[in-house]
Amino acid sequence: MVQSYFMKFILQIILLFSIFNIIAQTEGASQENFTHKLEELILETKTDSTNYYLKQLKESSYKSILEKIVFKKEVSYAEYYRFTSRTGNRRSINYKKVSNYINSFVEEPINKKKIDLDYVSIKWTQVSKLRDEGDLNEASKIQTTLDDYVNKFNDSEIEVLAAKTKITTHQIVMYLIQKDTENGKKLVLKGLETAKKLNDKELQIIFLYHLSDFLIEERKLQEYIDVSEQSLQLDKELTEHSSYYHSTIEHLIDAYIYKGGNNKRVVTLINELYDFASTRIHTYTLYTKLVSHLKKDSPLINEVLNKFEVKNVPELVSKFQVLGKDLNSNDFFHLVNGSSIALEAHGHYDLALRYKQKAIDLTQKIYWSQI
Predict the structure, then answer these.
(1) How far apart are CA 267 and CA 253, in angstroms?
(2) How many whole angstroms separate alpha carbon 122 and alpha carbon 237?
(3) pTM assigned to the model
(4) Which pLDDT score is estimated for 369?
(5) Given pLDDT bands bounded at 50, 70 and 90, which one contains residue 19?
(6) Which of 327, 357, 325 is nearest to 90 (CA)?
(7) What is the DSSP letter of 219?
(8) Nearest 5°: phi and psi at 140?
(9) Which helix (H) or strand (E) holds 176?
(10) What is the mean pLDDT of residues 201-213?
(11) What percent of the chain has pLDDT over 70?
């Protein structure tokens, strides 16, 4: 009898913990939604509803930044950098909105005696993002203004030398686009050498990332993997991950899958991305890519199936369609197309054809929406 009461007591405790956990997760999701909505209103300079969303947020250092921005109080470059970085990394936001916001509100520092590294980071990130979006003219235009600002300072100071080294990445990428491997790689290695002399791990990560681009051009797969692993190790030594961390992991996943024979490492890397709320939605495509390269009797397939509580590959890709419904059109196409390949690899040919047709339909929609 005593044991029975004890068991009931334990079950009640477990139930209470489950309820509290659900409430906490729901509240966390609501806070994130309010924050995202407020960020979007700020970028669109729609101030009518901003006060409502501010009141919904719990007190935090980031809420304080948003309040200063909304009420047009004095905002530091470090605070602007945090806001524009957060919004710029959200794939659901068109980066052009963030760029326009920066152009409108983040002016060049008045102090000409000391370089402002946060301002440099804002503009350097803006150049990188615009370039990645394909807007090379706008990226080059902003790069010119950034060069003019940084070159006003003496590079005998360590922080100035680091900044001048960092902003050479735009020219490096332009060399890559122009297929000028010789000059591009030379500039990368020069930057990497400077970063090592400065013992600047984050700067080393930047140049290792760009070095990997040229190694791919040279078809040096193993060197590409080695450099990416080196970059990942340096990133884990930082107090906070660099902006290259997730991309480096994705590069390694693709490289290991292409090379073959490193599936356990691939699973570890994908799981690492899955553990981050901001990148979880993008791992579903990576899981389908992995599954398409695994043999039917591989224990790793069962590991993936168990993780998502499904019995087979058709159930897995079906669940991914639901979990990935908030992906943008292009990313969702890759998920659907990857699902088709995974289904075909495991003998589900009719279903694979249906997913392939769905991918084609998505491509047509994306194309027509751009005309």
Answers:
(1) 9
(2) 23
(3) 0.77
(4) 54
(5) very low
(6) 327
(7) T
(8) -65, -35
(9) helix 169-177
(10) 96
(11) 90
